[in-house]
Amino acid sequence: MIGSIHNNGVRAWYVDTGFNDSGTYEHVVALVVEVAHYAF
After folding, report:
1. How confident is the model at residue 37 (pLDDT cuts 50, 70, 90)?
2. Where is 37: in which H helix or E strand?
3. Cα(10)–Cα(6) distance, integer angstroms
4. How far apart are the first and last CA of the chain?
5. What is the C-alpha to C-alpha distance for residues 27 and 34, in angstroms, rounded to an integer?
6. Percent of the chain's residues with pLDDT above 90
7. Would you list the domain boundaries of the chain?
8. Please, what is the Cα angle at 15 between 39 and 35, to 5 degrees?
């Protein structure tokens, strides 16, 4: 993954959702599909 680094060293894509993590799996699937698309 490529993300910009903030002053505190946390990547822009890092989001810790303690109670609502329903969208995290969708981002992982989208990333895998995107990488697979560019690989071929």
Report:
1. low
2. helix 24-39
3. 6
4. 18
5. 10
6. 0
7. 1-40
8. 5
